[in-house]
Amino acid sequence: MHILFLNHNVENYGTYFRCVHLARGLVRRGHKVTLLCANREDTLSTTRRVEGGLTTVLLPKYRLKGFHTLHSLRMLYNTAYALALKCDVLHTFAFPLHPMAVPTLAAHYLRPGLPIVLDHDDLWKGGFANQHPGLYQRFVGWCNDTMPRMARQCTAASAMLMDSFRTAGVPDGRIHYIPNCPTMGKSPLDKMQARAATGLDAMMPGDAPMVLSMGHTYTESLFQLLDAYERARRDVPELRLAFLGKMHIPADFERRLAPYLERADGRILRLGEKPPAEVPAHLAAADALLLPMDDDPIEKARFPIRFGDYLASGVPIVSNAVGEIERFLTEHDCGYVAPVSDSQAFGVKIVEALTDETRRDAIRENARRLIEETLNWDAVAQKLEGIYELARKKK
Hints:
Elements: E1 2-10, H1 15-28, E2 32-38, E3 47-51, E4 54-59, E5 62-64, E6 67-69, H2 71-84, E7 89-93, H3 98-110, E8 116-120, H4 134-146, E9 153-156, H5 159-167, E10 175-177, H6 191-198, E11 210-214, H7 221-235, E12 240-244, H8 251-264, E13 268-272, H9 279-284, E14 288-291, H10 297-301, H11 305-313, E15 317-319, H12 323-331, E16 336-337, H13 343-355, H14 357-373, H15 377-392
Parallel strand pairs: 1-2, 1-7, 2-4, 7-8, 8-9, 9-10, 11-12, 11-14, 12-13, 14-15, 15-16
Antiparallel strand pairs: 3-4, 5-6
Helix pairs in contact: 1-15, 2-3, 7-13
């Protein structure tokens, strides 16, 4: 099969990782995939990159005042590909957004024989769309509620997003769970070797304990994490907290962060973004990995990519988890979970993760087994292949 993936994200960001790893899994199974996404760099040009059976087309993007723009221009490119490319299946990710919705609708009406599969991996209606003007919210809501009935099959990254398809009138037999999986493997370095390789050994004395949070964007959960860190330091005074990633936060968050930095006296490290090849060593350098989450519908619906990377690292996870992440951590006993609204309990769980060696070993083993048996791209790609076969059958 030749499958066309439509993805709204910038390369190496968000849903792009879901798309590229699903695509590579399909390629390993003998299929061809064409993936459309936005260029990482500001450009008005398109770039075509071929990696075996995977062709990635990077479309124009320009960052203006912190926002990625040219969405409507990419909509036109996506529409051209959706109408002209000889493919067996069109799989549209984040389909309620107009750069994805318009080309998919065009394909539905102008290429009626083309099987269409829609994917939910974030909450748009009642979630991210609320950050946009009311007219756009209504458009996203219409697409969210209407387009699923046009699709041959539907895929989703969480139980809550599967329910969104049900609410739109899609029968259960056409809704399929497709989770996110690790995008990187475990570092071969032990903790101290990893600290030496990353330069973290120069930032802290000896074998000082360190917890790490990876991510580019933080919401109110940042302060739950910081309060939890301060609670943990009552029991582990030399504990370091490292942030790995761009850490995009607004000016008022920076002001609120300042007192925490002052009280930490150099123990909070902002490492910035690192090349993907260096990330496993940074994770291996930590004693625990933190995954802060908000108690809201967006968080309950999503499946953060970094969760799989945390699992693969062999380092225990501590989270005030909700939604799909809470389910995995509790059902598979592969991490430490605190109530989402209780930062003090979050801090106690951090201390537990640092000190209880027996439980740490059990959690590592459970995480390893979960990846080996369930959360791996080859297993998911095999399932997706079957979904496409169903989509290609006449209704």
